Amino acid sequence: MKRLLLNIFIFALYVCLTFPLVRHSFWQAKSELADTSVSTQGSEQGKFKILFNGEQIGEEKFQIQGEGSNFKASAEIHLTVDREKEKLTFHINPALQFTNRFEPISYQVVQEAGANKTKARINFKPGRSEVVYETGQGKDSREIELKPDVLVLDDNVFHHYILLTRRYDFLKGGLQEFSAFIPQQFLSGTISVDDKGFEKITLSDKTLSLQHLLVDSGELQFSLWLNQRHELLKISVPKSNVDVLRE
Question: Which residue, 72, 113, 230, 231, shows the most beta carbons closer than 10 Å to its own?
Answer without folding.
Answer: 113
